[in-house]
């Protein structure tokens, strides 16, 4: 980032470089489990090409029962990873969905076998722009074809096949993860007993695309991006990626939460400095968000995952009629939205609910009163946990699963 | 900007350079009228310094009557200028508020003498960061003290004094212009017979500050910014300023207007290209907004005017009680807000209305149903024109002004 922010002096720069080395190493040799599909099993991309080899990095929690009927697939959001319930080797932080997953939690590790895989196009071990292109022996960079939500889900299906699982008891996730859940239910209805898309939609709106484009332009405007070939130059577009993260982060919070959390409070000072330093807490907070993000995420990956969301429009794949995507589905849906989420407002969730109703699907819609905006799905939202806990318990009965996967 | 956008090849680059030369010339020698106050009349800044000399560039329309009672001050928005009703020499475009100002228009040039001045800190002829610092003989850059909304208004008051006008019949403006209107009414109640702040508020919210900080960081992240000394280097942070404009522009439109204007429509193509080109109309539109902006606006000025808005908090200047700012005011207020404006939502206008009510002021509040978002104040909003036309006509009677300024 720029003046008023750290990371400029030698020592912290060393830490930064080290953090980026760790991130790059994980992108190519993840600490998590992974499976690589060779030339015999290429990933068919919407771009019209076959991608091969394809590595999918994933984590699992809990125990798969004998008839492999207790599996839950967790889909991560834009900059998430497979470490939903375990420590990330890149950040050293605990699992990003520890509140949702664990013994006695809604996604109960005593009952279920939980799988979370890094999306294709990502940077935590699954094939992405930082991976080595077998043809050039160099990082793909922008030579990796553009990846779509459907491609991500197709790759996940290959992983589920690899694990010998026919049907998932549940697919759930928030934001981009929720888009994947919706795509799973549309593409593989017979493989999803239940589906829980949270804070998501079946398309990206014009405003969503606009904010993503701002972020991409910020990255591409950074000369350190080098047309996507920055890894060859042993550099990274830190400033551009930081600005992209800052712009995106504002959209993850509600105006109300920003006002109540930061308001116009000053950052460690009694009065305004009449400079362009981070006088306000919100400025300091955003700069910090930008700076820490670049140490854990690959700039080209950011281009790919944002593009995947922008390209997603499930109705467009079905003559503009969203209901057609769910005809005769037996999947049980629980759609969750948050009142102050202006990135994926409840109205977008309702479009999915209406389509599911028109398709005669079993659907419950939970609109949760929350101040937290889009990020609510990652935070402590008791109403969300209760709703998902109740939904999964009743589905668990309906499915005839034993009380505990371990007992199976 | 970056790939997929023009302005990269020679010929269009020449046009760009020429446009920037024109802009820089206007910043220092405006085609409009201007007044320069010397060492005897410095501008007292909130930063605690005196600024001298201070030039204020302005345009006037209509005729000042004999008793100088028919003057209206129009305050421009963030990136606006003094050319509210005349062609800008920088862009060659007609006045930005031609719909509001003119013969028979709500701000009637047959009745009123209209003044519009470029804000201090701007880049259209009033003293700003592109102006020459008399001490260094170099452009100020960041050596210009941070300017506030109160400073801008103090400078406008010096201009009004210079024109020999005691009381303005009306002060009006939108967005940052509306902030200036509110500040005028608070600082010089006896000099404002009426005040019309549109799509504005008495403070900048945390979310407002956040978006401005994203823009500033985008500019400062551009190596062409050179710590603010880019003019010495005969360059300009085009890409950073373009990204800043793109981010800001999204906030000027409502989600509804973006969806209805662009939706997910593709730009001059049948299908997605599976690249990072501007596939979507909204991407192409934003890139264009960014590119054209850098040809007409100075990057450092953008830092200063955004900072001025962030710093504004009228209540904070009055023990946190906004009503105190308007005690015993005789000014007649007309507050205008738009339902889909999420940058200055009606709730922010209502805070001003409630404060005025508490202060026993004469106030009418017009909340206009519009899907145009914040930009509505610049667009064709018949309800806005009717409301302001009616308000000014009744104030005109109450003030005892003759039917036409020319007859005076």
Automatic annotation (TrEMBL), chains A, B:
* Any one Gene Ontology molecular-function term assigned to this protein's record: homoserine O-acetyltransferase activity
Q: What Enzyme Commission number(s) apply to this enzyme?
A: 2.3.1.31
Enzyme superclass (EC):
transferase
Q: What's in the keyword line of the UniProt record?
A: Acyltransferase, Amino-acid biosynthesis, Cytoplasm, Methionine biosynthesis, Transferase
| Residues given in the record as substrate binding sites | 245, 375
Catalytic center residues: 175 (nucleophile), 341, 374
From start to end residue, where is composition biased (Low complexity)?
Answer: 1-14
Q: Where is this region: Disordered?
A: 1-39
Q: Where primarily located?
A: cytoplasm
Cell location: Cytoplasm
Q: Which reaction does it catalyse?
A: L-homoserine + acetyl-CoA = O-acetyl-L-homoserine + CoA
Metabolic or biological pathway, per its Swiss-Prot or TrEMBL entry: Amino-acid biosynthesis; L-methionine biosynthesis via de novo pathway; O-acetyl-L-homoserine from L-homoserine: step 1/1
Please give the superkingdom of this protein's source: Bacteria
Biological processes annotated in GO: homoserine metabolic process; methionine biosynthetic process
Residue span(s) of domain AB hydrolase-1:
70-379
Q: Which InterPro entries match?
A: AB_hydrolase_1 (IPR000073), AB_hydrolase_fold (IPR029058), HAT_MetX-like (IPR008220)
One cellular-component annotation, GO: cytoplasm
Q: Which NCBIfam families match?
A: homoserO_Ac_trn, PRK00175.1
Similarity comment text for this entry: Belongs to the AB hydrolase superfamily. MetX family.
Protein's job: Transfers an acetyl group from acetyl-CoA to L-homoserine, forming acetyl-L-homoserine.
Subunit structure as annotated in this protein's UniProt entry: Homodimer.
| Record protein name field | Homoserine O-acetyltransferase
What's the gene?
metXA
């Amino acid at each position: 980032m720029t003046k008023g922010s750290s990371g400029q002096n030698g020592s912290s720069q060393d830490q930064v470089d080290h953090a980026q080395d760790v991130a790059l190493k994980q992108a190519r040799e993840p600490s998590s489990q992974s499976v690589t599909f060779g030339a015999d099993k290429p990933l068919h991309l919407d771009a019209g090409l076959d991608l091969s080899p394809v590595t999918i990095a994933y984590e699992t929690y809990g125990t798969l029962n004998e008839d492999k009927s207790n599996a839950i697939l967790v889909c991560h959001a834009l900059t998430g990873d497979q470490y939903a319930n375990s420590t990330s080797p890149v950040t050293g932080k605990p699992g990003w969905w520890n509140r949702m997953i664990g013994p006695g939690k809604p996604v109960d590790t005593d009952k279920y076998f939980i799988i979370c895989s890094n999306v294709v196009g990502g940077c935590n071990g699954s094939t992405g722009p930082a991976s080595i292109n077998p043809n050039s022996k160099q990082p793909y960079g922008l030579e990796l074809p553009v990846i779509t939500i459907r491609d991500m889900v197709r790759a996940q299906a290959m992983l589920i096949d690899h694990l010998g699982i026919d049907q998932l008891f549940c697919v759930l996730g928030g934001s981009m993860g929720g888009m994947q859940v919706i795509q799973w239910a549309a593409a593989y209805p017979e493989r999803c007993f239940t589906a829980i898309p949270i804070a998501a939609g079946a398309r990206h709106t014009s405003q969503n695309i606009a904010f993503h484009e701002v972020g991409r332009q910020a990255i591409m405007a950074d000369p350190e991006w080098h047309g996507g070939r920055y890894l060859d130059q042993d550099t990274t577009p830190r400033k551009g990626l930081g600005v992209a993260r800052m712009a995106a982060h504002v959209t993850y919070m509600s105006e109300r939460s920003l006002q109540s959390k930061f308001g116009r409070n000053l950052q460690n000072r009694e009065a305004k400095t009449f400079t362009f330093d981070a006088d306000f807490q919100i400025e300091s907070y955003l700069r910090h968000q930008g700076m820490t993000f670049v140490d854990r995420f690959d700039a080209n990956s950011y281009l790919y995952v944002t593009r995947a969301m922008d390209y997603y429009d499930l109705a467009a794949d079905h003559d503009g009629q969203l209901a057609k995507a769910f005809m005769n589905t037996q999947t049980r849906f629980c759609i969750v939205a948050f009142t102050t989420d202006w990135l994926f407002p409840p109205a977008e969730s309702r479009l999915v609910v209406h389509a599911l109703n028109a398709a005669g699907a079993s659907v419950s819609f939970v609109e949760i009163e929350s101040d937290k905006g889009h990020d609510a799905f990652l935070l402590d939202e008791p109403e969300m946990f209760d709703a998902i806990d109740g939904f999964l318990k009743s589905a668990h009965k309906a499915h005839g699963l034993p009380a505990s996967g371990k007992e199976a």
